[in-house]
Design a protein that fits this description.
Elements: E1 20-30, E2 35-40, E3 53-57, E4 62-73, E5 76-81, H1 87-91, E6 97-101, E7 122-125, E8 130-139, E9 144-150, E10 153-158, E11 164-168, E12 173-176
Parallel strand pairs: 7-12
Antiparallel strand pairs: 1-2, 1-6, 2-5, 3-4, 3-6, 4-5, 7-8, 8-9, 9-10, 11-12
């Protein structure tokens, strides 16, 4: 199983429909002429070579900005946007996500998926027992953890190959092998 890609923001399956995927987050203004320092949140940073329009905001609401240029600076990218001319304007954008519409997400290889696609999947054991629905995903240092809810009950499942046996997005289900100590 390949590691999935995470969209930004905390979200659960009861949130409104996702409209954007983050490719970065504005962390600070850089210089006096409106340049923005952005942390990279995408496994596909090459998209900055071909994408001209990005959306700044959160995953549900965002405003369009035209990318004039970008360059690497330490571990970040420095962005120059047509709509941002000075440091004051740049500072007002700090903390916002730099995003693309979800329909412009880079297609993934067979067996790979974005984490937002897992939200709402029904979780079933290899023995056929329904455990609930993936409601949220925690990102830990070692592996992600799926929060599976069934009514008032909550189960934490590690996203490791020993537990997650298959993901079927078309059928909207995940098959898992329960390990000792998980329930």
């Amino acid at each position: 199983m390949n590691r999935p890609t995470r969209p930004q923001g905390e979200r659960s399956s009861s949130s409104p429909e996702l409209r954007y995927l983050a490719v970065g987050r504005i962390v600070r203004a850089h210089g006096l002429h409106g340049e923005l320092s952005m942390t990279i949140m995408t496994e596909f940073p090459e998209r900055f070579e071909t994408t001209e329009l990005f959306y700044l905001g959160n995953e549900f609401e965002a405003e369009p900005y035209h990318l004039k240029s970008y360059r690497r600076h330490q571990d970040n990218l420095l962005l120059t946007l047509d709509e941002v001319d000075d440091r004051t304007q740049a500072e007002q954008l700090c903390g916002l996500f730099v995003q693309v519409p979800i329909e412009e997400a880079v297609p993934l290889s067979e067996g790979d998926y974005y984490l937002y696609q897992l939200l709402g999947l029904q979780v079933i054991t290899t023995t056929g027992e329904t455990l609930g629905v993936i409601d949220d995903i925690l990102e830990t240092g070692a592996n992600d953890v799926y929060i599976v809810k069934n009514g008032d009950q909550e189960l934490l499942l590690p996203a490791i190959p020993e537990v997650v046996k298959s993901v079927d997005l078309a059928q909207k289900q995940m098959i898992v092998q329960m390990m000792d100590g998980l329930i």
